[in-house]
Design goal:
Elements (H helix, E strand, L loop, with lengths): L16 H13 L12 E3 L3 E2 L4 H13 L4 E6 L2 E7 L7 E5 L9 H9 L19 H18 L8 E5 L7 H8 L3 E6 L2 H9 L5 E2 L3 H13 L4 E6 L2 H11 L5 E2 L21 H7 L1 H24 L3 E2 L6 H7 L11 H11 L3 E7 L4 H14 L4 H13 L7 E6 L4 H13 L7 E5 L7 E2 L17 H13 L3 E6 L9 E9 L3 H24 L3 H10 L11
Parallel strand pairs: 3-5, 5-16, 6-7, 6-10, 7-9, 8-9, 10-11
Antiparallel strand pairs: 1-2, 3-4, 12-13, 12-14, 14-17, 15-17, 16-17
The structure holds nicotinamide-adenine-dinucleotide.
Length: about 550
Amino acid sequence: MEPIRSPRGANLTARSWPQEAAMRMLRNNLDPDVAERPADLVVYGGTGKAARDWPSYHGLIRTLTTLADDETMLVQSGRPVGVFRTHEWAPRVLIANSHLVPDWATWPEFRRLEKLGLTMYGQMTAGSWIYIGTQGILQGTYETFAAIAAKRFGGSLAGTLTLTAGCGGMGGAQPLAVTMNGGTCLIIDVDAHRLARRVETRYLDTVADSLDEAIDLALAAKRERRALSVGVVGNAAVLVPDLLERGVPVDIVTDQTSAHDPLSYVPTGVEPADAPDYAAKKPEEFTDRARASMARHVAAMVGFMDAGAEVFDYGNSIRGEAQLGGYERAFAFPGFVPAYIRPLFCEGRGPFRWAALSGDPADIAKTDAAILDLFPENESLARWIRMAGERVAFQGLPARICWLGYGERDRAGVRFNDMVTSGELSAPIVIGRDHLDCGSVASPYRETESMADGSDAIADWPLLNALVNTASGASWVSIHHGGGVGIGRSIHAGQVCVADGTPIARQKIERVLTNDPGMGVIRHVDAGYEIAEAVAETAGVRIPMREGSS
Ligand code: NAD
């Protein structure tokens, strides 16, 4: 089969840009430079897919190319199931992925239905067609390590060693995020190809031939306060305990193996090449072995914590799985959101991203300059945009991400639309975000862990988020179940707007990119966070229960 790539340039094959954009972004998600396993429609994150099966994929493309400007296509877990007449302000696509009624929301039931061809796992941006490759997570990871540097190491990771595992679609951002913060990183992956791929795309500096060599390289760099990332092939459930036993002086420990899905975490004693077949044939046995391995892996992480390292769960549910594997102290270390990210969420800050439908990197360079011009006072944003321009290799359509807050995202979106109107940009820009955002997710092991009012598992918020984005004029809106942390553990929503330079797009963008981060502000005001209250007050966000009664 011919590799799938997004069309580039300013010529339409669909009837208008919003439909064209959805078609291009679906194809872009499956570009071999973007997706982890495009032949299986898998984009990233274990089995996160862009379409349920090949007939569904072709049905999606066919429908998007014929869809009218007052029609909306409905997508049920990766399959187009209907087209209805709506109106110009309505989204062109509405997506629901992986949902199950709560009592049925378990991996075995999900897999049974998946095998019958009735559902698919949408992860976050895989099934909602706004994945932009590893860069998408790079900025969030960069921010997290910057926050750790500020909290524990005087503002820089120079002279520190970070130990982590999992160098896949998302986890592959870790080594570059650490070196961008000046630190040394040792990253383990059971699959040599994953490490080699990150070296090719410059996310990882080198792969050592053995654990001994990896330790020598990493410790020399730490001593010399040199930014360096070193990969080593092996099973984390073996190597992390080994490193602890050897007393290697590690400062920070985390993990991004695909632990959220025990059929994607390779148990000790299993060759990675044999894992998919074994998992498919004996899922229960595989799950037990994976959980037992995760228990050993997490026990070693706790060992590093006891020895004084900064240890955190990086949103892959490894603590929950290790607990199911019988390890009692699994939750001894925190998740990264309560530890470092929540104050940003209170300001409506989150992962704003965009892609150039022209395919021309010059368009992204121009939008980078626009961001620097719009927010001159934000130094860390400027540092990121400059470093990203120099060091990030594009995958698929050229794209950029940066974290922007309430009152900022709408300004950036409107500016991009104006740049399309004026012809400064050679084709429209697609603007979206990760579902991992301030007001779009309920995920008690991750984004909503340890909320101040205990509302961790309340899932009304992401549903309201999708509804308000639909009402505000987003181009496509999605609600998903189970992304990031796995089936039964999260509900989340996404939106994408298309800046095609038209006046109506300008109005839609202004509303969506105000209301979407506004959800983060009101969600955190409701939970009692003072930072959010201050933002709401200054920006005039209306919160009925605070408007007093008369
Ligand atoms: P992926 O499937 O692309 O990569 C997972 C990697 O883990 C693979 O390279 C695999 O070889 C490796 N691996 C599996 N078992 C291993 C073992 N025992 N030892 C060493 N390596 C092993 O997944 P991804 O997209 O990189 O996501 C990784 C995890 O991070 C997922 O659980 C995902 O949900 C989570 N995630 C977190 C965030 C966040 O913001 N913190 C964002 C996205 C994803």
